[in-house]
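Protein Record: Sequence and Backbone Structure Tokens
======================================================
Tokens: labelled as protein backbone structure tokens, with as many entries as the chain has residues.
Question of interest: how does this chain fold, as expressed in backbone structure tokens?

___
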Amino acid sequence: MYAIVEIAGQQFKVVKDQKVFVNRLQTEEGKKVAFDNVLLVADGDKVTVGAPAIDGAQVGAKVLKHLKGDKVIVFKKKRRKGYRVKNGHRQSLTEIVIESIAASGAKKAAKAEPKAKAAPAKATPKAEPKAKAAAPKAEAKPAKKEAPASKDLSKHTVAELKEMAKAKGIEGISSMKKADLIAALS
């Protein structure tokens, strides 16, 4: 019996009691971990293919140790330019051993609890959108800045003058200089 399972973003063909090196998992050494994203399970001539995953299938494993992979040298060079960069990399890995492959019945118990917890959670979001919808109505709209009553427009900044011109509906203000804005506003 074997299965194709997605572990840490990669797909692996696994058999019971097989050791596999996968990308680093956040589980402590010696702890058990279960992978629910099983894509295919084959037991002799009986093959079950998921769309994309098989409901109820699960692969159980135990974390043996965390380690680093072999060093990989990354060398970049552009000829005739004097550009050379040499870097090294060691991938963080986790060694796991596959303990069990369950073709069905593994997820049913796990799904029952979230449904019970999710029911009260669904009731509260319905009440929240009403509160959110009412909140914008309660807020006062920001008052538009009116042109100051001062007649001397040269004391204002260019940004203030552009806002005043925009409020009056004058077009082409983005390319105007301060003198042109004062002339258009007076």
Observations:
- Strands lie at 2-7, 10-15, 19-23, 32-35, 38-43, 46-49, 58-78, 83-102.
- The two ends are 87 Å apart (CA to CA).
